[in-house]
Structure formats: C-alpha cells, structure tokens
Design brief:
Layout: H1 21-35, H2 44-63, H3 70-88, H4 94-109, H5 115-131, H6 139-160, H7 170-192, E1 217-218, E2 232-238, E3 249-255, E4 257-258, E5 263-264, E6 277-279, E7 284-290, E8 297-298, E9 300-301, E10 311-313, E11 319-321, E12 329-335, E13 339-341, H8 346-353, H9 361-373, H10 377-390, E14 394-395, H11 407-415, E15 417-418, H12 420-433, E16 438-445, E17 448-450, E18 455-459, E19 463-471, E20 475-479, H13 481-485, H14 487-491, H15 494-497, H16 515-536, H17 540-552, H18 557-585, H19 588-601, H20 613-623, H21 628-643, H22 649-661
Parallel strand pairs: 14-15
Antiparallel strand pairs: 1-5, 2-7, 2-18, 3-9, 3-16, 4-5, 6-13, 7-12, 8-11, 10-11, 16-19, 17-18, 19-20
Helix pairs in contact: 1-2, 1-5, 1-6, 2-4, 3-4, 4-5, 5-6, 6-7, 7-18, 9-12, 10-12, 19-22, 20-21, 21-22
Length: about 675
C-alpha cells in the first residue's frame, strides 16, 4: 500500500468561466448570419430546426432559464444526424457535409455555457462562413461574408474580453480595425503566394455539382432547355478584329455516335499540339473568361489554332483541359474563321457514316432519293438546306416531344417544330443516309456585346448545335441548318428568332419599358468581369503573367516565396516602426527628452542605446561641467516623469520649458 502523501491528493478542477449574456447574444447573432445564405441549399426542415434552436437559445439567455438536459440534446443530435443521412443518403460531400455542420452547430448551441464552448462555436462559425464559398463566389456573397467575419470577430472579442466593460460597439470597432489591418497581408499573400495547377486540398466529389450548361451528349430538348437560362457561360475580349455574328461559333463537344435518340462523343486520343489544318485569311485573337462547368472541355472560336497551358486537342478540334474547370478560368486563344482541314481518315469515315440499324425508314428513303437524283455532296447539302428553308418548318423553344424511336422521322414528317438540336440531328442523319460523312458539333453561337466593358457575354441561352460535313478538297465544313429556318437566330440572337420573346429570361429580351434595368445589369456585369479576371481567375498562369508585367521576369516558386517573405517582413517592420513612432510621438515627455538628446549629440555627446537618463546626465556633467546644473535638472525631472508612479501636467510643462531654454 502506497504511503499517504499530500501531493497525491486530487487537485481541484479550475472554475469554469461562464459566458456573459452579452457574449452569448453576440455569438448567436453571428452564427445566424453565417447560416443565412445556406438556407437556399439546406432542406426546409433543417433550416427550421436551426431557426427554432437559435430562438430557443436566445430565449434562455434573455429569461435566464436553465439549459435543456443532456438526454434531450442526445436525442436531438441523433435525430438531426439521421435526418441528414436520410436526406442525402450519405454524411459526406458538399451538401451533406454542410447540412451536418449546421445541425451539429445547432446542437452545440443548446449546451454552450462556458468560454471554451464559445470558442468552439466561433470556429464552427468560421467553417460555416467558408462553406458558403462552395456555392457562390460572386461579389455580393463575398461582401456579405466580410460583414459576417466582422460579426464573428466581434463575438470572439466579446468572449475573450467579456469582463473588460466594453461598450456595445467596441467589439465591432475592434473587429473592423483587425480586418483592415489584415488587408495588406491578405493582398501580399494573394498576389505572391505560389499558385499551383489545381487546388491545395481535396474537395468533396459533389462540390461542383449543380452546374448548368452543355453536356457531352445531345438529345431532343437538351439545348432548348438552356434557352431558358440567362446565366453567363463565358465572356470574351477580342484583341484583334471582331468577327461578324455568322462567324462567332464557339466550338465545344463534337458528337459522332447516334443511337436513334442521343448523340454522344467517341473516345479520341488528344494531342499536346493543335490538330493540323490550313488557315485561310487573318487570325482572330481573343481572351476567354470561362465560368465553372465541371467539364474538361474548353470553348474556342472555330477553328482553334493554339493551346492554352495544360490543354490538349483532339482530331475533331475539341480543346480538353487536363482537369475539369471548377473555377473561373482565363485563357488566351487564336483561331481562324476560314480554313481547310486535312484528309478524311478511315476511322472518321466509319464514324461519320454510322447510323443505327432499322430506324427512321422514311428519312433513309428521302436521302436515297436525293442521292439518286444527284450524288454530289454539295448538291445533297443544298437539297437538305432547301428542305428546311422552303417547307413549313418552325423554330421554337418549346417543340413537341418526340417519343418515337424514329425521332428523326417524327420530326421531319410530323411535328416540324424544333430547336437547333432537332435541325442539326436531322441534317446529320440525312447526310449520313445519303453517304456524306457528317457529325454534330455543340457549343455556343453569337453573344452580346457589353459596350461598357468592351467584351462579349455568351450566356447559356446562346447554346447551339450545328453540323459539319466532309467535302472533297475542303475537309470538314460547318453547315448550320438552323440558319436555313431562322437566319435571325445567327445574325441577331435568340430573342430575334422567336415570335414571343416574352418567354425568354429577362436579360435576353430587348427594348420595352424595362430596357433600363437590362442596361443596369450589363453595367454590373462589367464589374463582375474585373472580379472574375483578377480574383477568381488568378491562377498560376495569370500570376506569372501579372508578375512578369511588373518587371519580375520569368518567375518561379522560389523567387515568389522569397518575394512574399520579404514583402511580409517589410510590412511587419513598417507597422512596428509606425506603432513605435506613434507611441512616442504622442508622449510629450519622450518628445522633450529626445530634443534634449539631439542638442547634446550635436556637440559630440551621444547617448548610448543602453544608457539610462541619470547615467547619461552624469556623463554629460563629467565632460561638460558647465552643463551640470541644467542637464542634471532635466535628467532628474525626466526620470521622475518617465518612471515615477504619476505624471503631473505642471511637471511636464516644466520639463518642456527647461529643454527649450537649454543650450549646449
């Protein structure tokens, strides 16, 4: 048995420091602000749960009620976790992760009472703030989140200084100052921190889901559905002559395979050099600012002749990035609107003539009749375009459904109402049935010029599909059957091609009483492109381009790291010097003593850095006995004011007068 020792007695636990009602209310308000934007994405029941818990916790604080028992918290946490699991079928990923974080924050609120609990909630709040950026990085959202960060910092100040007697606005004032002081550091890190291709950390697999836009397949209705969206797909700045509308075809996925209803891509081995072709005429140079799409392919004007960094090109002239575009991506391009491509390979001929067996018999019969009449590919192309141009075909955003397996027959001989995908699909089928190699190209066409910023906006509603046929001596030639039915769609845009533009989204309409609102939206977009180019699209290529423009030359990671550390060190030293100078500039005692020391230094009596005032005066007296009386009086008075318990205003004025009269 161990002998008794009073050192073995259990030590009493330190007292728990409780949060004040003011600190709890401030923290609760900051958390509500952080969760607010998530309400658009969270399930209704979870938003209602958080609101109810926040209201309950506020009631407990105001009425000084007891916290709920732990068994009730355990039940609530279990039900909330199970609800998230049932809602998303997982607890991982962006949506489920944010929902679980919100639910656990609500549960933590109901047990928070100590300073430690408050600190935990503050950091949960910062996580909620950052997770908002997984859904939106627009200017309004970032501005709102800065306000939330100030509120969260203020709550943190109130927690750690809750007994300092701060006024209601003092924590907000201090948090605002902290944020302003952090801005120079943030700018240095943003500009100089070495960027790498891809994120520094892994994001959930669903972090980039929910993106609208083109897909890698096309079926009736897939592109017409995008005609209802005024979301921006990408923006373009031309640095050379602007091509006319009928040459502004932005090339995306090239579709070869057809199963009777859907067009899909084939697997093509991309190359690190542009696919060969013969350019004719001048090149067009431009910069694309592409919105996130969660796709690998990039958009380029027909026909691309350059490759952005870390990008390859297929034989179908489709640009493929090494990784999906999950951030605003800026790249420079060069294209040739007029061109001739090379010879047709055996694989291209096979894919370009492939048709599903025993489908669309009426269309096959029609194509065979055309071929018997004139088998020249050019004549067959003109005959098909004449069919769309001269007969009763209609261009509409809401075509009838094509439910039959013979969808092309259904369109050509029954409904005759369609969007661009209907006409491109039917045209390519007709060409293949007539023996002409053809393929579908999807992308965007046209775009709206923003005069304020001097750039073009291409929206999701500008999504388009057209055809390419292979002609001897010319190679792959673009043919747009939509232009035969609705030429105004190509020249003026979607709004001009539809009889009822009122069905279009607001930003796609023209004229009317609300035109001024549309112009206001374009003005706002001109700010957005600056934000996109210099903030969201500030990747490794943009960083090197920017720093090279500042005279850094060819920069690498090592140089950027040295520059960043130097800039941060210089900023820290400058701030410390400024604080020191302000500190002593505001002290009249120190100011008077410094003037006294300067006057003696001019006579060769320099005070050493480690020399106190009395020791310095003693040395002055030894070297200059004639200054013993005034120097001794100044030194003793300064020491009393600088190191004494109190400072008398009369004594300060006496010291200033003695220094003014002093002559070395």
């Amino acid at each position: 048995m161990m002998p008794w020792n009073r050192n073995n007695r259990p030590k009493p636990e330190p007292p728990v420091e409780l949060l004040t009602p003011q600190a709890l209310i401030g923290l609760l308000a900051a958390l509500v602000l952080a969760v607010g934007p998530h309400a658009r994405e969270l399930p209704v029941w979870l938003t209602a749960l958080f609101a109810a818990v926040a209201g309950w916790r506020g009631f407990i604080v105001i009425r000084n009620q007891a916290l709920p028992p732990r068994w009730l918290l355990l039940i609530l946490a279990t039900l909330a976790g199970a609800g998230v699991l049932l809602e998303y079928r997982t607890l991982l990923g962006r949506e489920a992760g944010v929902a679980l974080l919100t639910a656990m924050t609500a549960c933590k609120l109901l047990e928070t009472r100590s300073l430690r609990d408050g600190v935990v909630l503050v950091f949960l709040g910062y996580l909620l703030v950052m997770s908002n950026l997984l859904h939106s990085q627009d200017i309004p959202m970032v501005a709102y989140l800065l306000v939330v960060i100030v509120a969260m910092l203020a709550a943190q100040v109130m927690i750690h200084r809750q007994h300092a007697g701060l006024t209601a606005l003092a924590p907000l004032w201090l948090a605002g100052r902290m944020l302003l002081l952090a801005i120079p550091v943030m700018l240095i890190l943003f500009v100089l921190f070495p960027r790498i291709p891809g994120p520094l950390w892994g994001l959930p697999k669903d972090a980039h889901e929910g993106r609208t836009g083109l897909s890698e397949e096309m079926a009736p209705g897939t592109i017409s559905a995008l005609g209802q969206s005024d979301e921006v797909a990408f923006r373009v700045r031309f640095t050379s002559a602007i091509p006319p509308p009928n040459q502004r075809y932005w090339r995306g996925p090239v579709l070869w395979n057809f199963d009777g209803r859907r067009w899909t891509r084939i697997e093509e081995l991309p190359s690190n050099v542009p696919a060969p072709f013969t350019p004719e005429g001048a090149a067009v140079e431009y910069t694309v600012i592409l919105e996130p799409s969660n796709r690998r392919w990039l958009l380029a004007l027909d026909l691309p002749a350059s490759l952005p960094p870390r990008t390859s090109m297929t034989a179908s002239f489709q640009l493929l990035r090494n990784q999906p575009v999950n951030e605003v991506y800026r790249y420079e391009m060069r294209s040739y609107p007029h061109y001739r491509t090379g010879d047709l390979t055996a694989a291209e001929r096979t894919h370009g003539l492939q048709l599903p067996s025993r489908t669309n018999p009426r269309t096959r019969t029609l194509a065979a009749a055309w071929r018997q009449r004139d088998a020249q590919p050019e004549a067959l192309v003109n005959t098909a375009l004449a069919l769309f141009r001269e007969q009763a075909f209609y261009y509409t955003l809401t075509p009838p459904l094509l439910m039959s397996r013979d969808s092309v027959d259904d369109f050509l001989f029954r409904t005759r109402q369609g969007f661009c995908e209907h006409y491109a699909s039917a045209f390519v089928f007709l060409m293949r049935a007539a023996g002409v190699p053809a393929r579908v190209v999807t992308g965007y066409q046209g775009g709206e010029r923003n005069e304020l910023g001097g750039y073009f906006i291409i929206r999701q509603a500008d999504a388009h599909a057209w055809a390419e046929v292979w002609l001897e001596g010319r190679g792959w030639v673009r043919i747009d059957p939509t232009a035969a039915v609705a030429p105004s769609r190509i020249q003026e845009g979607l709004y001009a091609a539809l009889p009822d533009s009122g069905a279009l989204p607001f930003l796609l309409r023209r004229g009317g009483n609300s035109e001024w609102l549309r112009q206001l939206a374009l003005s706002w977009d001109s700010f957005n492109i600056v934000w996109n180019e210099w903030v969201l699209a500030y990747g490794p290529d943009r960083q090197k381009e920017f720093l090279s423009g500042l005279g850094f030359g060819a920069v690498d990671w090592g140089e950027m790291t040295v520059a960043m550390i130097t800039a941060l060190s210089g900023l820290g030293l400058a701030y410390a010097a400024l604080r020191w100078r302000r500190r002593y500039a505001r002290d009249p005692v120190v100011r008077a003593w410094q003037r006294f020391c300067v006057r003696l230094a001019r006579r060769g009596l320099v005070r050493e850095a480690d020399e106190g005032p009395l020791a310095f005066v003693e040395r002055v007296t030894h070297c200059r006995p004639d200054l013993a009386q005034p120097a001794g009086e100044i030194g003793r008075l300064y020491a009393a004011l600088r190191y004494g318990p109190t400072i008398s205003p009369a004594a300060v004025r006496q010291l200033q007068q003695l220094v003014r009269r002093f002559r070395a």
